[in-house]
């Protein structure tokens, strides 16, 4: 179990008793209270299969009221609870560490377009991102968020992690597009902040407390998301780029030539791509040391084509690329995106993934991957870099056949010290969760962490909501 590998001590919470199960079965119905160890397995293990808890109970509410009743009861009884969406989180935040009850949003799947604002969708937390996006198609809208886990992750999980993804550079993050939300606090109180107003300066903007707080301050039950119009013209291009300096120049030219239509600017190195080929049998149609994957979203294909042509001509003229593929055909675009989006899956197949998600200035961005290659032992299978170049977000990944503590100590805290020296962030988008909580001080000063802890104590005095997550074990 996780607690052994990470030497963490169980909090002073109650242990689940038969009478608690009786209460939950009475509140929900017995199909929505899972206690069979076989059924519980998938809720106890994270997507990376690197952390595991031993919860004896999963609850599946359908309504905010049910969530509220569950939390009120758990707070009175001092039972710890982990909110869980699609369980695709990458920092061990979504699974129990010990025997916490799992509150799954799986059955909270309703949504509607707001009556007040036709560009706003009001969705229950358990809506799967891709399903929601597909359903919005008929309204000519799209969710302004796209990530590789879209087929499984829930919108409530996305909001609770402030998920980034591949289109942040165009549509910004969820602090911008979530106009309002509803959440249930640890004691069952329903926080109703489900505003659909574009502007609202009446009082503290408390919704932001729940965006990115990873289930430690409340259970997000509904969200009001400002959607974007679905683009009429989409283009994707994969470019072969010889070195990182050229890659940065490609990005600059893209900003200048594509301007407002650029919707993604991703990158991958050849080690990432080799891993995808080895483990998933997928590979790009062009070969290179580095790849840029760009996308445009626009409303007028003639206008967009002209811009894309101007961009391609300039990067070719300046000798920044050695090859490239450009397409607007949906199936071909999908194939190009697949390589980038399935890298996490390809890495996972190699055994244990040491996964990092840092914000770094460009001057120090790819250098760390090269430094790490020299630091790591030969037992490492893959050491690679990819990520959201347009957001200064590097995904640095290492794999070994099995978990190897010596590899971990070569990476941590070295990488975090490097990140701090560069004034970056130890988490650009995945969050802190369980795995990174004791490294928080590399990104936040003691006064900041103290204020976080005070906020937690105010909203959840018994500390029952997602314990052992986000906040460090000690206050500096
Ligand atoms: P979970 O994994 O179930 O939970 C994540 C955290 O949120 C946990 O701390 C949990 O307790 C909390 N939580 C979940 N639901 C609620 C709720 N309703 N109320 C309160 N707390 C809640 N992340 C990115 O940012 N960008 C990416 O590009 C990206 N790509 C990914 C690609 C793959 C293949 C995978 C596997 C993951 C990727 N992720 C990415 C990470 C992950 O998908 C996101 O963090 C996602 O937002 C998690 O959603 P989820 O529903 O799976 O949440
Ligand atoms: C991605 O951008 O692919 C995700 O954040 C997952 C990962 O970092 O592997
Ligand atoms: Zn990412």
From TrEMBL:
Keywords: FAD, Flavoprotein, Oxidoreductase, Peroxisome. GO terms for cellular component: mitochondrion; peroxisome. Its main location: other. Its cofactor is FAD. Pfam families: FAD-oxidase_C (PF02913), FAD_binding_4 (PF01565). One of its GO terms (molecular function) is (R)-2-hydroxyglutarate dehydrogenase activity. PROSITE patterns: FAD_PCMH. Its EC number is 1.1.99.39. Residues 51-230 form the FAD-binding PCMH-type domain. Coiled coil: none annotated. Belongs to the FAD-binding oxidoreductase/transferase type 4 family. It comes from Notodromas monacha. It is found in: Peroxisome. Catalyzes the oxidation of D-2-hydroxyglutarate (D-2-HG) to alpha-ketoglutarate. Also catalyzes the oxidation of other D-2-hydroxyacids, such as D-malate (D-MAL) and D-lactate (D-LAC). Exhibits high activities towards D-2-HG and D-MAL but a very weak activity towards D-LAC. This is D-2-hydroxyglutarate dehydrogenase, mitochondrial. It catalyses: (R)-malate + A = oxaloacetate + AH2. It is an enzyme of class 1 (oxidoreductase).
